[in-house]
Amino acid sequence: MKIAEVGNIIEFKDGRLQGIVEKVNENSVIVDLTIMENFHDLELEEKTVVNHKKYKILNKDLF
């Protein structure tokens, strides 16, 4: 299992959600969801926690 690093963009919830990793914990990452174009339409919190087993890394860095 490849663990994401700070700055990686990941997808989760079967590809329905994407975010940028802000912090890596032992079993999870904290993700900022505001990079999604439809973020405001989804009425979600700005950040969420995702278990390492539940995401896929899309690219190495946003910047």
Short recap of the structure:
This is DUF2187 domain-containing protein. This protein is mainly beta and 63 residues long. The chain contains one helix and five strands.
Question: What do you see in this structure?
Answer:
The chain has 63 residues and is mainly beta. It has one domain (9-58). The chain is 6% helix and 43% strand. It has one helix spanning 39-42; strands at 9-12, 17-24, 28-32, 47-51, 55-59. It has a five-stranded antiparallel beta sheet with strand order 4-3-2-1-5, with no helix packed on it. Strand 1 (9-12) and strand 2 form a beta hairpin. The radius of gyration is 11 Å and the shape is globular.
Average pLDDT, rounded to a whole number, is 93
Q: What proportion of the residues form beta strands (DSSP E)?
A: 35-45%
Helical fraction equals under 10%
SSE order: EEEHEE
User: Helical stretch count?
Assistant: 1
Uncertain runs are none
| Separation, N- and C-terminal Cα atoms | 24 Å
Gyration radius from CA atoms, angstroms? 11 Å
**How many strand segments?**
5
Q: What's the number of domains?
A: 1
Gross morphology is: globular
The helix-and-strand class reads mainly beta
* Largest sheet descriptor: 5 strands, antiparallel
Strands in their spatial order, largest beta sheet: 4-3-2-1-5
InterPro entries: DUF2187 (IPR018690)
Protein name: DUF2187 domain-containing protein
Organism: Ureibacillus manganicus DSM 26584
Pfam family, one: DUF2187
